[in-house]
């Protein structure tokens, strides 16, 4: 699919071979706060998830894709979630696993590819994301890709440091 191919990376469907990669991401306590996870996932549960990843986005209301470079190395994951096809909107989340692959344009290229896919193939009207107030890298990434801050949810998430505010960002086609 040409839509999901960029200059340096491409987005692809999850494969059974991604078990260890997804397991590593889902069990990385350093990024649990991004997905509001509080418990680890077993390989068994992730295998079941991968076995069901073939579900159509219109049925599952979500889509998770692997961000891969052209050496076929998985760099991260990008998600479409809370798909509301009646109102033509969906949420987007992204994670680049290793710090060495961040800040090199991989996330920006992946986000641009997914935005294009959402607007051209899924015919969505708007996208949204929720980003912690102190996650300056993600705020910069989404703002550089056209998202605008439309609200601040005060004391929205409880973290090890106490309550944290969270921004709501939107991109309207």
From TrEMBL:
One of its GO terms (molecular function) is acyltransferase activity. InterPro entries: Acyl_CoA_acyltransferase (IPR016181), GNAT_dom (IPR000182). It holds the Pfam family Acetyltransf_3. Residues 9-170 form the N-acetyltransferase domain. It is an enzyme of class 2 (transferase). Keywords: Acyltransferase, Transferase. Its EC number is 2.3.-.-. This is GNAT family N-acetyltransferase. It comes from Winogradskyella litorisediminis.
């Amino acid at each position: 699919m040409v839509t999901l191919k960029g200059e340096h990376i491409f987005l692809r469907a999850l494969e059974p071979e991604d078990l260890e990669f997804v397991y590593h991401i889902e069990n990385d306590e350093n990024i649990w706060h991004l997905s509001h996870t509080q418990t680890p996932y077993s390989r068994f549960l992730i295998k079941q998830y991968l076995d069901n990843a073939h579900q159509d986005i219109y049925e599952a209301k979500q889509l998770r894709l692997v961000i891969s470079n052209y050496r076929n190395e998985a760099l991260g994951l990008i998600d479409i979630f809370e798909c509301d096809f009646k109102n033509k909107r969906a949420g987007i989340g992204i994670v680049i696993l290793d710090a060495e692959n961040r800040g090199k344009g991989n996330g920006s290229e992946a986000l641009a590819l997914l935005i294009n896919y959402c607007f051209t193939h899924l015919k969505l009207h708007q996208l949204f994301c929720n980003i912690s107030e102190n996650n300056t890298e993600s705020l910069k990434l989404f703002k550089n890709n056209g998202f605008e801050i439309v609200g601040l949810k005060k004391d929205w998430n409880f973290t090890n440091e106490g309550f944290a505010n969270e921004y709501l960002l939107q991109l309207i086609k």
